[in-house]
Design a protein that fits this description.
Elements lengths: L4 H16 L5 H26 L6 H42 L4 E2 L4 E2 L14 E8 L5 E2 L2 E2 L6 E2 L5 E5 L2 E14 L3 E11 L2 E7 L1
Length: 202
């Protein structure tokens, strides 16, 4: 591998990892990647001790070698990792910004005075309308879902599938949001950390 290709790979790999992993794994991924050379070194030492004849002070020699290599490579490794992490977080923001383009779901928005407190529709009466991050600009019935407080309807949660993975069944709570004139109703569930699914009644 060429001298230019090595640092490029060391930057690109953590960038792709940070951009791809779910939010709840980001910190663990950063820590694991920073410590990965130490993990590889420890694995090599264990393999060497297990497969070669015993030598006096093998662990001391390994520790001395680790200190020697660390004194030379620790700072360059940290620099390329930080560059890669920075690019990865930039990619995450870019991907989230693209998903945050306003998504409007057309459903009837009823005047508040004319809105009854209906019972929850059956499972077959719901249709999925959106999967996305919190605060991603979703609108239902012309109202921004994340701009108004969600008011529980008092209806029992309804069991519905993940809109993108139909084998996964989640419990969706039923809410209403309203402005001064109109009210809309939807079912929502946090499907994973920061990712929400939405249904509306048909």
């Amino acid at each position: 591998m060429s001298m230019w290709l090595q640092p490029l790979v060391a930057i690109v790999l953590p960038a792709l990892l940070i951009a791809a992993v779910p939010q709840r794994w980001v910190k663990r991924t950063v820590i694991f990647w920073l410590l990965s050379p130490l993990i590889v070194f420890a694995g090599a030492v264990i393999l060497e001790i297990a497969t070669r004849p015993a030598t006096p002070n093998a662990l001391g020699t390994a520790f001395y070698g680790l200190m020697l290599v660390s004194s030379i490579l620790a700072i360059p490794w940290l620099v390329v990792c930080l560059i890669g992490f920075g690019i990865g977080f930039g990619l995450r923001r870019l991907l989230r910004a693209r998903s945050a383009e306003v998504r409007t779901v057309e459903v009837p928005a009823l005047p508040i005075a004319a809105t009854p407190a209906p019972a929850a529709p059956t499972r077959s009466a719901w249709r999925d309308v959106h999967v996305g991050f919190a605060h991603d600009g979703l609108q239902i019935g012309g109202l921004g879902v994340w701009e108004y407080p969600w008011r529980p309807t008092g209806c029992a949660p309804v069991k519905l599938p993940h809109p993108a993975h139909l084998a996964q069944i989640h419990s969706y709570d039923i809410y209403t949001i309203n402005d001064e004139r109109y009210q809309v109703r939807f079912a929502a569930a946090e499907l994973s950390n920061g990712v929400w699914g939405f249904y509306v009644s048909t």
